[in-house]
TrEMBL record, chain A:
Top-rank lineage group of the source organism: Bacteria
Pfam families associated with the record: DUF2160
Organism whose genome encodes this protein: Marinomonas fungiae
Keywords for this protein: Membrane, Transmembrane, Transmembrane helix
InterPro entries found in the cross-reference section: DUF2160_TM
Parts of the chain that traverse the membrane: 6-30, 72-89
UniProt name for this protein: Predicted small integral membrane protein
From TrEMBL, chain B:
Subcellular location: Cell membrane
Entry's family note: Belongs to the binding-protein-dependent transport system permease family.
Protein name per the record: Carbohydrate ABC transporter membrane protein 1, CUT1 family (TC 3.A.1.1.-)
Naturally occurring in which organism (per UniProt): Marinomonas fungiae
GO CC, alphabetical: plasma membrane
Keywords noted in UniProt: Membrane, Transmembrane, Transmembrane helix, Transport
Alphabetical list of CDD domains matching this protein: TM_PBP2 (cd06261)
InterPro entries tied to this protein: MetI-like, MetI-like_sf, Sugar_ABC_transporter
Pfam family, any one: BPD_transp_1
Length: 90, 288
């Protein structure tokens, strides 16, 4: 594992992503997702909304890094809120 | 009757999953690890947080390379897609001519990238190249090594020459799949050539064009070898695209941290653009 140069934050990040994927798969197995239309202009499944949420969160974090000196925890907190909003009403 | 759910077949996907894990996911994870560290050697590395990302996002050279990259990708798409359709429409459909045309059109696709770069490097030279000599005869002082516009023209021409055949072949296969009855109906209605194209051929080509646009966008957005061989990114930095900036940073200067951060930003941009393309096109089809 030395060659992969792990650090604690990156390990935590990937563990988080893996947990989300496992949780989403379990949720899908228990109650399959149905495409629906929320405030997004397209019909989406839970997985689509998760993808949109993660991708937009990545860009929000990049924006925070590039344009401000505000702590990244603020960006993460905003993204968690955005993610919840998107998953429920997207 | 209730449908029996049997998900055991998913186990058959496991080999593919393992291969993808080793060829894509693990290297990507490693890149993420590199992007937050300053690496001197495998045992000496320091955690630097998001410092490389900040540096990369504020780097003027990379902004310029990104703008050039988008201009390049959209230029070649604007040329290659209509041109590919035109070539496909003009290719013979029956007899020996059809096979010959297919082979002739496919030739540029069989040539390795670095050879394509070399071919055009020689082709464009005013002293020994046909294209360069022709431009000189026409009284144009054409020199792709010193004039940015000429370098751009050559890189775009080269990509169009190399990759229009792919679009043409995709469209050709799409056109062959249209049943003859559609054309018969069009003849009975005395439809014009344009009407046949607009209402029969183009709608039937949508699927192959989706693949064509996506493939060409992704490939052109990651273009490296041909401009590297042809112009080396010059004159100056006028044809330095994203991948070449990345290679300069990663291999030329061995700045693994910034290069990894740059790769991730690059990856996210490609992911976003492809997702937007894919979703738009899939929804256009659904609405039909």
């Amino acid at each position: 594992m030395v060659w992969m140069s792990w650090t604690l934050p990156t390990a935590a990040f990937f563990a988080g992503i893996a947990l989300i994927l496992v949780a989403m798969t379990t949720w899908q197995a228990i109650s399959p997702s149905v495409e629906r239309k929320g405030f997004l202009p397209i019909e989406t499944t839970r997985g689509d909304r998760l993808f949109i949420g993660l991708l937009s969160s990545a860009f929000v974090h990049l924006g925070f890094v590039a344009l401000s000196d505000v702590s990244l925890y603020v960006a993460t907190a905003l993204c968690v809120l955005w993610m919840c909003f998107l998953m429920r009403w997207g | 009757m209730t449908k029996v759910e049997n998900n055991k077949a998913w186990w058959l996907v496991m080999p593919v999953f393992l291969i993808v894990a080793f060829s894509a996911i693990i290297p990507l994870m490693t890149v993420v690890n590199y992007s937050v560290q300053d690496i001197f050697d495998p045992y000496t590395r320091y955690f630097v947080g998001t410092e490389w990302f900040k540096q990369v996002m504020l780097d003027e050279r990379l902004h310029d390379a990104l703008i050039r990259q988008f201009i390049f990708s959209f230029t070649i798409l604007l040329i290659e897609i209509p041109l590919g359709i035109m070539v496909a429409l003009m290719m013979p459909t029956k007899g020996k001519g059809a096979s010959l045309a297919l082979i002739l059109v496919a030739i540029p696709l069989l040539i390795p990238w670095n050879v394509v770069g070399t071919i055009w490097q020689i082709f464009g030279r005013a002293d020994i190249g046909l294209f360069g000599a022709m431009m000189a005869k026409l009284g144009i002082n054409y020199n792709y090594a010193s004039e940015p516009m000429h370098a751009w023209l050559t890189v775009v021409l080269m990509d169009v020459w190399h990759w229009t055949p792919l679009v043409a072949l995709l469209c050709y296969s799409g056109l062959r799949a249209i049943p003859e009855v559609y054309y018969q109906a069009a003849r009975i209605d005395k439809a014009s050539r344009w009407a046949v194209f607009r209402y029969i051929q183009l709608p039937k080509l949508t699927n192959v064009l989706i693949i064509g646009v996506l493939l060409r966008f992704m490939d052109s957005f990651m273009i490296y070898t041909e401009p590297f061989v042809l112009t080396g990114g010059g004159p100056g930095t006028s044809t330095t695209f994203l991948s070449q900036s990345l290679v300069q940073q990663a291999i030329g200067q061995f700045d693994l941290g910034p290069a990894a951060a740059f790769s991730l930003v690059y990856f996210l941009i490609i992911l976003l653009v492809c997702w937007v393309f894919y979703t738009t096109i899939m929804h256009m089809q659904k609405d039909k």
